[in-house]
Design brief:
- The chain has seven helices and seven strands.
- With about 220 residues, the protein is of the alpha/beta class.
- A hairpin with a 2-residue loop joins strand 6 and strand 7.
- The N terminus is likely disordered.
- The protein has a seven-stranded mixed sheet.
- The two termini are about 20 Å apart.
- It has a single domain, classed as Domain of unknown function DUF4159 (Rossmann fold, 3-Layer(aba) Sandwich), CATH 3.40.50.
């Protein structure tokens, strides 16, 4: 219990400082997991997203993100954790419990399917929250209506299997704690322009949606105080 309370204090302080101090006070976290999936798939994406948010939202992110183990206590130092990859994801019992406690304490996990991780992510999330189900968020959800308007939900960044992009949510006590973007590939759109050679308008849409996620997470945390 003491750990969870301390976690809540750390996260609250981080959320509040992000919009109110002139120097970098936060780092985004990239989730490092086991199972063989390439958790490191998009090395420039979080740096570019942080820079975009600093410019557009006036946040104060350090452009150097942290690589954080699922089962590490360091997880609790980062209010926003991003997860991506193409393949298998395995959480041990201890890792699942750590991630569950992090999310319950006020943390947020964004999972972006880089292609191929969908069945593994769903199993992993069931281990973290066996009593909850992923639900598709309606286009009216506030995450799509922050600084930037996405009246039709997620933008389509890469083709994948050709399906429409979908945003799924996992809730704890009414709070969105996991946002899972599928058939979308926001992270690829956040990468340096020469990596995937996406058109400028596609890359901008990805960054804007990423900024919406960040603004939603931080605004929700402030409203909860």
């Amino acid at each position: 219990m003491r750990k969870i309370i301390l976690t809540g204090i750390l996260l609250t302080g981080a959320f509040m400082m992000s919009f109110k101090t002139p120097v970098p006070t936060l780092k985004m976290g990239l989730l490092k997991y086991h199972g063989g999936g390439d958790w490191y798939a998009n090395p420039t994406s979080l740096t570019n997203l942080a820079a975009f948010c600093n410019d557009q939202l006036k946040t104060n992110f350090n452009l150097d993100y942290a690589e954080v183990e699922v089962g590490s206590a360091e997880l609790f130092n980062y209010p926003f954790i991003h997860m991506t990859g193409h393949g298998n994801v395995i959480f041990s019992d201890a890792e699942a419990e750590n991630l569950r406690n992090y999310l319950k304490a006020g943390g947020f996990l964004h999972i972006d399917d880089n292609y191929g991780m969908d069945p593994y992510v769903r199993l992993a999330l069931r281990k973290i929250f066996p009593e909850q189900e992923l639900v598709e968020l309606p286009f009216s959800h506030p995450i799509y209506h922050q600084k930037f308007e996405f009246k039709d939900g997620l933008p389509k960044i890469h083709k994948h299997d050709g399906g429409p992009p979908q945003g799924f949510g996992l809730f704890w006590e009414g709070r969105l704690v996991v946002f899972y973007t599928y058939e979308c590939d926001l992270g690829d759109g956040w990468e340096d322009p020469e990596v995937h050679k996406d058109p400028a308008e596609i890359r901008l849409a990805a960054l804007r949606m990423g900024a919406n996620i960040i603004q939603y997470v931080f605004s929700e945390s402030e409203e909860a105080q």
